[in-house]
Design a protein that fits this description.
This protein has about 240 residues and is an alpha/beta fold. The chain folds into two domains: about 130 residues, 3-Layer(aba) Sandwich (Rossmann fold), CATH 3.40.50; about 110 residues, no CATH class. Helix content is about 30%, strand content about 30%. A four-stranded parallel beta sheet has the order 4-3-5-6. Strand 10 and strand 11 form a beta hairpin.
Amino acid sequence: MDLYDTDEAERKIPKNFGNENGILDRLKMCITKYDRFLVVASARDTYALTDLYGNATCRSFAMTLPFARYDILDGRNAKEAEELVVSADAVFLSGGHVPTENAFFREIDLSELLRRSHAVVIGLSAGSMNAAREVYAPPELPGEAADPSCCSVLQGLGLTELHVLPHFSDYRETVLDGKRYLEDILLPDSFHRTVYAMDDGSYILEKDGRAAVYGVCWRLRDGKLEPFCAPGRSAPIE
């Protein structure tokens, strides 16, 4: 979901996010009310970044799939989390650092609030990863791959059993703390869990107990990387 461009001053310029791999069509099929749209921040207290990305997200949706009201939830209004989440028609889980976002979600008990909500949940990047019951959170930042205390499994929102890895094309050649991201981190971890690694513009739709990938996706399983879904195509996840 391509929500904005970035200019030379690092400002986010919202844009119509379009219908790549049919995402807009499928959101329209899932969302039945357009009263309230809620962005849940990826960190409690990074207010400037939250405003930068959160406002751009709201403005992009206003261009593409408009709602009557837009709210952003972070540490400033965390006491209002129950009212904001339960009354939302769509909840957008932001991208960011997976463990940091996970901690904020747990602080506001987001998993319980979503169970009481009728909202369609949209996860971007880290938000899609934290949607899982058991979150696969491989190291992201320098120092994390070398830190034996860095936990790669977290308790998530419980919206899905699937493990996803967004931005996969960015990681294929990455070296982190002297480790090859694919060969030394992701593939060894795939002996313990199956991971669906997606390129930007691809997504998973899970509804009524069924899930499918739309767009380019690879599956990491049992130490192997295999193509799972091709450009412009869809593939069910059994």
